UniProtKB/TrEMBL annotation:
This is Beta-ketoacyl-ACP reductase. Residues 3-173 form the Ketoreductase domain. SUPFAM superfamilies: NAD(P)-binding Rossmann-fold domains. Belongs to the short-chain dehydrogenases/reductases (SDR) family. CDD domains: BKR_SDR_c. It comes from the Bacteria.
């Protein structure tokens, strides 16, 4: 059955791959974007997820177009990498406000309709960095690790209402972000990945699609790494 799906940060990279995958399967997919151009063929709403009023307005537009959101994918995120001694407080808090508190805002708003329907799927996009840590990314790692605790708390809090919460933790992926790395940096990173390559956005999308499906109805509170083995043991 076609479901109403909302993906934050769905205008590029991993978010867009998830949106295309679910739309191809027949879902009514909406995406939020903060800047840039909205993607063709998808219902797009401009929204800064650090602003609760904008989040509420975005949900209102999606609900009017597609009906109450049944599947939420919290994907939007930012980085402000810096070594601790050079990292400003704003560098730290702004990353947490987008990546972690943004997911809280989206989930809280989505839960209204899910609680009434007594069903729902929430998938949070974390990162292998959130599980294993990374020098120069204390803010990003903290925000992505926080998503795991948040998802597992929600899984316990709302599981009895038929709502599942799961986390996908991608490793280094072929996106515009990885495209900014030098060949030397990429080779060094790939050497630490057992499969020896970067992930394709479509591979992340496939894991999200499974967790959002009926086949995953008895999976909640899980963390699924899609990282080529880079984070094994975490």
């Amino acid at each position: 059955m076609s479901r109403s799906v909302l993906i934050s940060g769905g205008n590029r990279g991993i978010g867009l791959a998830i949106a295309r995958h679910l739309a191809a399967a027949g879902d009514r997919v909406a995406v939020t974007y903060r800047s840039g151009e909205p993607p063709e063929g998808l219902f797009a709403v401009q929204c800064d997820i650090t602003d609760t009023e904008q989040v509420d307005r975005a949900f209102g537009e999606v609900e009017k177009e597609h009906g109450p959101v049944e599947v939420l994918v919290a994907n939007a995120g930012i980085t402000k990498d810096q070594l601790l001694m050079r990292m400003s407080e704003d560098d730290f808090t702004s990353v947490l406000d987008t990546n972690l508190t943004g997911a809280f805002r989206l989930t809280k708003r989505a839960s209204r309709a899910m609680l009434r329907a007594k069903k729902g799927r929430v998938v949070l996009i974390s990162s292998a960095v959130g599980l294993r840590g990374e020098s120069g990314q204390a803010n990003y790692a903290a925000s992505k690790a926080g998503l795991v605790g948040f998802a597992r708390s929600m899984a316990r809090e709302l599981g009895s209402r038929g709502i599942t919460f799961n986390v996908v933790a991608p490793g280094l992926t072929e996106t515009s972000m990885s495209g900014q790395l030098s060949d030397e940096q990429l080779e060094g990173m790939k050497s630490q990945i057992p499969l020896g390559r970067l992930a394709r956005p479509e591979e992340i999308a496939a894991a999200v699609a499974f967790l959002a499906s009926d086949e995953a109805s008895y999976i909640t509170g899980a963390v699924v790494p899609v990282d080529g083995g880079a984070g094994m043991g975490h």
